[in-house]
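Batch job 17 of 40 flagged for manual review because the log was empty.
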Amino acid sequence: KTSPALSCKPDSLSWGLDAMEFVVKNTKAAAAKTATLVLPVGEEGLLGATAQTVDQASGGAISAVLKRGDLKGKPGQTLLLHNLPNLKADRVLLVGTGKDDERDGRQWRKIAAAALGVLKGLAGNDATFALQDVQVKDRDTYARARMLVEVLADGQYVFDQFKSKKNEEPKLGKIILLTDKADQERVEQAARHAAAIAAGMSFARDLGNLPPNICHPSYVAEQAKQLGKTFKGLKVEVLDEKKLRELGAGSFLAVSQGSDQPGCIVVMQYNGGKKGEQPYALVGKGITFDTGGISLKPGQGMDEMKYDMCGAASVLGTFRAALELQLPINLVGLLACAENMPSGNATRPGDIVTTMSGQTVEILNTDAEGRLVLCDTLTYAERFKPRAVIDVATLTGACIVALGSNTSGLLGNNDELLQQVLGAGQKADDRAWQLPLFDEYQEQLDSPFADIANIGGPKAGTITAACFLSRFTKAYPWAHLDVAGTAWISGGKEKGATGRPVPLLTQYLLDRAEQA
């Protein structure tokens, strides 16, 4: 089982994923009985207060090693020590943390990942992190602890269910985070939030990594239903093609009609807030395989088009995190699930369809299918009278050209909402960057035969795709996240789903819950 199931024990200070439990303790590092005690070492071998007490307890064994120059303390450097005297830890892992005035979130992730890289190769079921003295620029105690737990949990992810020989690398069963009494409550909260986010990311990664012969639209719908059985308060409804036809979703059906796999819109409703309170809505593109349709993609790399449902996967992952945390908000999730295939029944370039909103679309390129399923889904979202709508989609290759694989593209029609999403991305270290949505770009979508064309030519592809969606989102505040570059790692042995932007979306909901 690769998707970790998070369990929160109400009377305990621990939160666990199936293979990993996180425990927060206020105890002395030198007295920690553990397989491995992780201690920070600053640049030039500087020891913080906690590490100094451990060094003193060991009779100066750590400082003696550092004087030999075996560890310079640069970010991510590691040194494993065995059998230090007077300590209850079986071994001590020194990890370089660099200079205090240069340590940022990126370095902090590198430090955490380096420690995990060593721990994963060791025997022993647990490790204790005594990093409470380490400061990170623009990150408070909560943010540092949460980032640490997220890196450690996500770093344990393995997708090997289709391997005849499973991964036999030893896994840590327990991570203990040491903290001062004054910070304990915040670190506990950080661990709980981080564990929920990591579980949501794992769920999203599993869905993105599954092969398309298994993960088709009906499978995604079943996963949503299963989520509803696992957690209280989630209602799931599936709009099949018959229902979509009755609703007039001609744009959506133009995509799914070429496949033997029927499309659907999965509707998820969670009411954790006040009765009658307007919900927030998340909409995910769920193209479970994208051949491009009649506008066929090149064969090389087409296997990666199973990741074209990562928008829907991230919405499911975010719902999992929100349900685990039982956030006090009302939330709607809409998953636009279809398979884009070429066949005798497939939509042709030049076809004109009528959307659920009544607007007509000339389909110039059947490989611009994501916006065709999303526009009807965004129209359907109106009936929930949402406070705000965020759609998430692996929508355009142009976004990868513009922003690469580090940053998601962000566009929308409401400045307050856009700033909230940008701020959530900064907090979660899952950043987005706003692109313009000026009216001048709308002209690229003009069609001589229909109300709108589904592509706007070679220029500003990410923007014109958002312009298309904006025609269907005038009834509510709306933001669009293009995650084509961030939702998966492309090519090579490391290719696979990343679980982004689950951290960003969950942080956005945490912020809304805090407001509530």
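Reviewer: the log was empty due to a logging misconfiguration, but the result itself is present. The chain has 15 helices and 21 strands. Unflagging and moving on to job 18.
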